[in-house]
Amino acid sequence: MKPYPLILEPILKEKVWGGRRLERLAKRLPEGARVGESWELVDLPATSADGGGGGAARSVIASGEMRGLTISDAALALGPNLMGTLRSAPDTGGFPLLCKYLDARENLSVQVHPSPAYASAHPDALIKHECWFVVEAEPGAKIYKGVRQGVTRESFARGLRDGSAVGDLIEIPVQPGDFHLLPSGTLHALGGGVLVAEVQTPSDTTFRVFDWGRTGRALHIDQALECTSFGPPTQTRPVRAGAGWRSLLGATDAFTVHHLRLMGDSEQEIENAPAPPLGGPMVWMVIQGEGTLESVEREYPHVPFTRGTTLLFPAALGRTRCRVARDAAILEVRFPLPVSR
Protein backbone atom coordinates (compact mmCIF):
# COMPACT_ATOMS: atom_id res chain seq x y z
CA MET A 1 0.00 0.00 0.00
CA LYS A 2 1.41 3.35 -1.06
CA PRO A 3 1.47 6.10 1.61
CA TYR A 4 -0.78 9.10 1.04
CA PRO A 5 -1.83 12.16 3.12
CA LEU A 6 -4.33 10.91 5.70
CA ILE A 7 -7.37 13.06 6.54
CA LEU A 8 -8.43 12.44 10.15
CA GLU A 9 -11.97 12.33 11.54
CA PRO A 10 -12.43 14.68 14.54
CA ILE A 11 -13.63 13.42 17.92
CA LEU A 12 -15.95 16.00 19.50
CA LYS A 13 -16.15 16.55 23.27
CA GLU A 14 -18.96 18.41 25.01
CA LYS A 15 -17.75 20.72 27.79
CA VAL A 16 -19.52 22.94 30.30
CA TRP A 17 -17.48 25.88 28.98
CA GLY A 18 -17.90 25.03 25.28
CA GLY A 19 -19.94 26.67 22.54
CA ARG A 20 -20.77 26.38 18.84
CA ARG A 21 -17.80 28.14 17.26
CA LEU A 22 -16.25 24.88 16.01
CA GLU A 23 -18.90 24.88 13.29
CA ARG A 24 -16.82 27.60 11.65
CA LEU A 25 -14.09 24.97 11.24
CA ALA A 26 -16.53 22.66 9.43
CA LYS A 27 -17.18 20.47 12.48
CA ARG A 28 -20.63 18.86 12.54
CA LEU A 29 -21.84 19.56 16.05
CA PRO A 30 -24.80 17.76 17.63
CA GLU A 31 -27.84 20.02 17.75
CA GLY A 32 -27.90 22.12 20.92
CA ALA A 33 -24.63 20.70 22.26
CA ARG A 34 -21.98 22.89 23.89
CA VAL A 35 -18.87 21.45 22.28
CA GLY A 36 -15.59 22.62 23.75
CA GLU A 37 -13.04 20.36 22.09
CA SER A 38 -12.41 18.74 18.74
CA TRP A 39 -9.69 16.11 19.07
CA GLU A 40 -8.06 16.23 15.65
CA LEU A 41 -5.24 13.73 16.13
CA VAL A 42 -5.17 11.37 19.09
CA ASP A 43 -3.88 7.87 19.81
CA LEU A 44 -4.41 7.24 23.52
CA PRO A 45 -5.10 3.75 24.95
CA ALA A 46 -6.86 5.39 27.93
CA THR A 47 -8.13 8.83 28.93
CA SER A 48 -9.21 10.46 32.16
CA ALA A 49 -12.92 10.55 32.97
CA ASP A 50 -12.82 14.37 33.12
CA GLY A 51 -10.71 15.03 30.05
CA GLY A 52 -11.51 12.33 27.52
CA GLY A 53 -14.51 10.60 29.05
CA GLY A 54 -12.61 7.44 30.00
CA GLY A 55 -11.57 4.62 27.70
CA ALA A 56 -9.39 4.80 24.62
CA ALA A 57 -9.36 7.68 22.14
CA ARG A 58 -7.93 6.95 18.71
CA SER A 59 -8.29 9.01 15.55
CA VAL A 60 -9.93 7.32 12.58
CA ILE A 61 -8.80 7.92 9.00
CA ALA A 62 -11.52 9.55 6.89
CA SER A 63 -10.07 9.24 3.39
CA GLY A 64 -8.57 6.87 0.85
CA GLU A 65 -7.76 3.16 1.03
CA MET A 66 -7.32 3.24 4.80
CA ARG A 67 -10.65 4.93 5.52
CA GLY A 68 -12.07 3.56 8.79
CA LEU A 69 -8.71 2.47 10.21
CA THR A 70 -7.27 4.04 13.35
CA ILE A 71 -3.81 5.59 13.46
CA SER A 72 -2.62 2.45 15.26
CA ASP A 73 -4.06 0.32 12.43
CA ALA A 74 -2.27 2.52 9.90
CA ALA A 75 1.02 2.11 11.76
CA LEU A 76 0.66 -1.66 11.48
CA ALA A 77 -0.32 -1.45 7.80
CA LEU A 78 2.43 0.98 6.75
CA GLY A 79 5.12 0.16 9.32
CA PRO A 80 8.10 2.50 9.06
CA ASN A 81 6.50 4.12 6.00
CA LEU A 82 4.25 5.95 8.48
CA MET A 83 6.56 6.63 11.43
CA GLY A 84 9.98 6.66 9.76
CA THR A 85 12.61 7.00 12.49
CA LEU A 86 10.12 8.36 15.01
CA ARG A 87 9.33 6.25 18.04
CA SER A 88 5.89 5.79 19.51
CA ALA A 89 5.16 7.69 22.71
CA PRO A 90 7.09 5.87 25.47
CA ASP A 91 4.30 6.21 28.03
CA THR A 92 1.28 5.32 25.87
CA GLY A 93 2.74 3.28 23.00
CA GLY A 94 0.73 5.37 20.55
CA PHE A 95 1.39 8.26 18.18
CA PRO A 96 3.52 10.83 20.06
CA LEU A 97 1.27 13.87 19.51
CA LEU A 98 -2.21 15.14 20.40
CA CYS A 99 -3.83 17.96 18.40
CA LYS A 100 -7.10 19.71 19.26
CA TYR A 101 -9.26 22.74 18.68
CA LEU A 102 -10.68 24.38 21.83
CA ASP A 103 -13.72 26.67 21.80
CA ALA A 104 -13.89 28.58 25.08
CA ARG A 105 -17.33 30.19 25.26
CA GLU A 106 -16.59 30.63 28.97
CA ASN A 107 -13.34 30.61 30.94
CA LEU A 108 -11.68 27.22 31.20
CA SER A 109 -10.63 26.03 34.63
CA VAL A 110 -7.24 27.20 35.90
CA GLN A 111 -5.10 24.10 35.62
CA VAL A 112 -1.61 22.68 35.38
CA HIS A 113 -0.03 19.56 33.94
CA PRO A 114 2.62 17.42 35.67
CA SER A 115 6.09 18.93 35.86
CA PRO A 116 9.05 16.67 34.98
CA ALA A 117 9.88 16.30 38.69
CA TYR A 118 6.29 15.33 39.56
CA ALA A 119 6.06 12.88 36.66
CA SER A 120 9.31 11.17 37.64
CA ALA A 121 7.96 10.62 41.16
CA HIS A 122 4.49 9.50 40.00
CA PRO A 123 4.65 6.91 37.19
CA ASP A 124 0.94 7.31 36.39
CA ALA A 125 1.34 11.07 35.69
CA LEU A 126 2.54 12.12 32.24
CA ILE A 127 4.33 15.31 31.21
CA LYS A 128 2.21 17.50 28.96
CA HIS A 129 3.93 20.28 27.03
CA GLU A 130 1.44 22.17 24.89
CA CYS A 131 0.96 25.31 22.84
CA TRP A 132 -1.92 27.47 21.67
CA PHE A 133 -2.41 29.22 18.34
CA VAL A 134 -5.26 31.73 18.53
CA VAL A 135 -7.65 31.16 15.61
CA GLU A 136 -10.40 33.58 16.72
CA ALA A 137 -10.75 35.96 19.66
CA GLU A 138 -13.51 38.33 20.69
CA PRO A 139 -12.56 41.94 21.57
CA GLY A 140 -10.98 42.04 25.03
CA ALA A 141 -10.32 38.28 25.12
CA LYS A 142 -7.40 37.02 27.19
CA ILE A 143 -5.61 33.98 28.48
CA TYR A 144 -4.09 33.25 31.88
CA LYS A 145 -0.50 32.02 31.80
CA GLY A 146 1.79 31.58 34.78
CA VAL A 147 1.88 33.39 38.12
CA ARG A 148 3.12 36.87 38.93
CA GLN A 149 6.59 37.62 40.26
CA GLY A 150 6.76 37.07 44.02
CA VAL A 151 3.88 34.59 44.24
CA THR A 152 4.92 31.51 46.22
CA ARG A 153 3.34 28.14 46.75
CA GLU A 154 2.22 29.22 50.21
CA SER A 155 0.72 32.56 49.13
CA PHE A 156 -1.05 30.95 46.17
CA ALA A 157 -2.51 28.27 48.46
CA ARG A 158 -3.84 31.04 50.72
CA GLY A 159 -5.37 32.73 47.70
CA LEU A 160 -7.14 29.53 46.72
CA ARG A 161 -8.64 29.33 50.20
CA ASP A 162 -9.80 32.96 50.38
CA GLY A 163 -10.78 33.37 46.71
CA SER A 164 -8.06 35.84 45.69
CA ALA A 165 -5.86 33.46 43.67
CA VAL A 166 -7.04 34.75 40.28
CA GLY A 167 -5.21 38.00 41.04
CA ASP A 168 -1.97 36.01 41.24
CA LEU A 169 -2.26 34.89 37.61
CA ILE A 170 -0.73 36.71 34.65
CA GLU A 171 -3.45 37.92 32.25
CA ILE A 172 -2.41 38.26 28.60
CA PRO A 173 -4.65 39.88 25.95
CA VAL A 174 -4.89 37.80 22.77
CA GLN A 175 -5.81 38.29 19.15
CA PRO A 176 -5.96 35.95 16.14
CA GLY A 177 -2.50 34.77 15.09
CA ASP A 178 -0.96 34.81 18.59
CA PHE A 179 1.06 31.74 19.60
CA HIS A 180 1.92 30.71 23.16
CA LEU A 181 4.04 27.83 24.46
CA LEU A 182 2.86 26.24 27.73
CA PRO A 183 5.56 23.98 29.18
CA SER A 184 4.46 21.37 31.71
CA GLY A 185 4.20 22.99 35.14
CA THR A 186 2.71 26.27 33.83
CA LEU A 187 -0.60 27.30 35.43
CA HIS A 188 -2.91 28.35 32.61
CA ALA A 189 -6.47 28.87 31.40
CA LEU A 190 -8.20 30.05 28.26
CA GLY A 191 -10.43 33.03 28.80
CA GLY A 192 -13.94 33.15 27.37
CA GLY A 193 -14.34 34.17 23.74
CA VAL A 194 -11.22 32.43 22.42
CA LEU A 195 -10.87 29.66 19.83
CA VAL A 196 -7.44 28.03 19.65
CA ALA A 197 -5.60 25.21 17.94
CA GLU A 198 -3.72 23.21 20.56
CA VAL A 199 -0.70 20.97 19.95
CA GLN A 200 0.61 18.89 22.83
CA THR A 201 2.41 15.80 23.95
CA PRO A 202 -0.02 12.86 24.28
CA SER A 203 -1.12 13.08 27.88
CA ASP A 204 -4.54 13.54 29.44
CA THR A 205 -3.25 14.28 32.96
CA THR A 206 -4.64 17.60 34.23
CA PHE A 207 -4.81 19.06 37.74
CA ARG A 208 -7.57 21.64 38.18
CA VAL A 209 -7.12 24.30 40.88
CA PHE A 210 -9.92 26.81 40.25
CA ASP A 211 -13.16 26.57 38.27
CA TRP A 212 -14.68 30.08 38.42
CA GLY A 213 -17.44 29.12 40.85
CA ARG A 214 -18.70 26.20 38.78
CA THR A 215 -19.56 23.11 40.80
CA GLY A 216 -19.56 19.42 39.99
CA ARG A 217 -15.97 19.05 38.78
CA ALA A 218 -13.18 17.86 41.04
CA LEU A 219 -10.28 20.10 42.07
CA HIS A 220 -6.75 18.73 42.52
CA ILE A 221 -5.16 21.46 44.62
CA ASP A 222 -2.46 19.44 46.40
CA GLN A 223 -1.19 17.87 43.18
CA ALA A 224 -1.33 21.19 41.34
CA LEU A 225 0.68 23.01 44.00
CA GLU A 226 3.32 20.29 43.78
CA CYS A 227 3.50 20.64 39.97
CA THR A 228 3.32 24.40 39.49
CA SER A 229 6.35 26.40 38.41
CA PHE A 230 6.25 29.54 40.57
CA GLY A 231 7.71 32.65 39.03
CA PRO A 232 6.57 34.20 35.73
CA PRO A 233 6.80 32.15 32.52
CA THR A 234 9.70 32.77 30.18
CA GLN A 235 7.31 33.90 27.41
CA THR A 236 4.48 36.32 28.14
CA ARG A 237 4.48 38.14 24.81
CA PRO A 238 2.87 36.22 21.94
CA VAL A 239 4.89 34.89 19.03
CA ARG A 240 3.47 35.82 15.63
CA ALA A 241 4.20 34.45 12.19
CA GLY A 242 6.82 36.22 10.12
CA ALA A 243 6.37 37.66 6.65
CA GLY A 244 7.64 34.61 4.76
CA TRP A 245 5.56 31.69 3.52
CA ARG A 246 6.93 29.44 6.30
CA SER A 247 7.94 30.67 9.76
CA LEU A 248 8.81 28.98 13.04
CA LEU A 249 6.36 29.64 15.87
CA GLY A 250 7.85 27.50 18.62
CA ALA A 251 9.54 24.26 19.60
CA THR A 252 9.78 21.81 22.47
CA ASP A 253 11.93 18.72 22.79
CA ALA A 254 8.92 16.75 21.44
CA PHE A 255 7.70 18.81 18.46
CA THR A 256 8.16 21.97 16.40
CA VAL A 257 5.35 24.17 15.06
CA HIS A 258 5.61 26.27 11.90
CA HIS A 259 3.06 28.62 10.34
CA LEU A 260 2.56 28.26 6.58
CA ARG A 261 1.09 31.06 4.51
CA LEU A 262 0.09 29.91 1.01
CA MET A 263 -1.44 32.30 -1.50
CA GLY A 264 -4.55 31.42 -3.49
CA ASP A 265 -4.13 30.20 -7.07
CA SER A 266 -0.57 29.03 -6.36
CA GLU A 267 1.46 25.81 -6.11
CA GLN A 268 4.02 24.69 -3.55
CA GLU A 269 5.91 21.40 -3.40
CA ILE A 270 5.77 19.92 0.10
CA GLU A 271 9.00 18.51 1.48
CA ASN A 272 8.18 15.84 4.04
CA ALA A 273 11.65 14.37 4.54
CA PRO A 274 14.06 17.26 5.22
CA ALA A 275 17.61 16.74 6.35
CA PRO A 276 18.25 15.99 10.04
CA PRO A 277 17.58 16.99 12.76
CA LEU A 278 13.97 16.91 11.48
CA GLY A 279 12.40 13.63 10.44
CA GLY A 280 9.44 11.29 10.60
CA PRO A 281 5.81 12.08 9.79
CA MET A 282 4.26 15.54 9.64
CA VAL A 283 0.88 17.01 10.63
CA TRP A 284 -1.10 19.86 9.08
CA MET A 285 -3.93 21.72 10.81
CA VAL A 286 -5.61 23.89 8.17
CA ILE A 287 -6.63 27.14 9.89
CA GLN A 288 -8.05 28.76 6.76
CA GLY A 289 -8.17 28.32 3.01
CA GLU A 290 -8.65 25.37 0.71
CA GLY A 291 -6.73 23.41 -1.87
CA THR A 292 -5.61 19.99 -3.06
CA LEU A 293 -2.62 17.75 -2.40
CA GLU A 294 -1.33 15.88 -5.44
CA SER A 295 1.31 13.21 -5.93
CA VAL A 296 3.97 14.43 -8.35
CA GLU A 297 4.56 10.79 -9.42
CA ARG A 298 0.79 10.02 -9.43
CA GLU A 299 1.15 7.53 -6.56
CA TYR A 300 -2.21 8.41 -4.94
CA PRO A 301 -5.45 10.22 -5.89
CA HIS A 302 -5.80 13.93 -5.18
CA VAL A 303 -6.53 14.79 -1.54
CA PRO A 304 -8.68 17.93 -1.03
CA PHE A 305 -8.48 20.05 2.12
CA THR A 306 -10.41 22.98 3.52
CA ARG A 307 -10.62 25.04 6.70
CA GLY A 308 -10.66 22.69 9.69
CA THR A 309 -9.05 19.72 7.91
CA THR A 310 -6.27 17.94 9.81
CA LEU A 311 -3.88 15.71 7.86
CA LEU A 312 -1.16 13.25 8.80
CA PHE A 313 1.64 12.96 6.24
CA PRO A 314 3.41 9.56 6.43
CA ALA A 315 7.20 9.68 6.68
CA ALA A 316 7.67 7.84 3.37
CA LEU A 317 5.23 10.00 1.41
CA GLY A 318 6.48 10.64 -2.11
CA ARG A 319 6.87 14.06 -3.69
CA THR A 320 3.69 16.02 -3.07
CA ARG A 321 2.43 19.25 -4.61
CA CYS A 322 -0.03 21.56 -2.88
CA ARG A 323 -2.39 23.47 -5.19
CA VAL A 324 -4.02 26.32 -3.27
CA ALA A 325 -7.46 27.51 -4.40
CA ARG A 326 -7.99 30.10 -1.63
CA ASP A 327 -5.40 31.79 0.61
CA ALA A 328 -4.38 29.23 3.22
CA ALA A 329 -2.94 29.44 6.74
CA ILE A 330 -1.68 26.13 8.10
CA LEU A 331 -0.02 24.94 11.29
CA GLU A 332 2.68 22.43 10.38
CA VAL A 333 3.91 20.14 13.16
CA ARG A 334 7.13 18.16 12.82
CA PHE A 335 9.24 16.07 15.15
CA PRO A 336 12.70 17.41 16.05
CA LEU A 337 14.69 14.27 16.72
CA PRO A 338 14.87 11.24 14.44
CA VAL A 339 15.37 8.32 16.80
CA SER A 340 16.38 4.85 15.68
CA ARG A 341 13.58 2.35 16.06
Give the oligomer, counting copies of the same chain as homo and different chains as hetero: single chain
Task: Give the helix proportion (percent range).
Answer: 10-25%
In CATH, the homologous superfamily of the largest domain goes by the name: Jelly Rolls
Broad structural category: mainly beta
**Contiguous uncertain segments of 5+ residues:** 274-278
How many helices in DSSP terms?
5
**In whole angstroms, how far apart are the ends?**
21 Å
Q: What fraction strand?
A: 35-45%
Name of the CATH architecture of the largest domain: Sandwich
How confident is the prediction overall: mean pLDDT? 90
Give the overall form: globular
Task: From the 3D structure, determine the CATH topology of the largest domain.
Answer: Jelly Rolls
Rg, nearest Å: 20 Å
Give a brief outline of the structure.
This protein is mainly β and 341 residues long.
Description:
The protein has 5 helices and 22 strands. The protein has 341 residues and is mainly beta. The protein folds into 2 domains: 222 residues, Sandwich (Jelly Rolls); 90 residues, Sandwich (Jelly Rolls).
Keywords:
about 350 residues, mainly beta, Jelly Rolls, nine-stranded antiparallel sheet, about 10% helix, globular
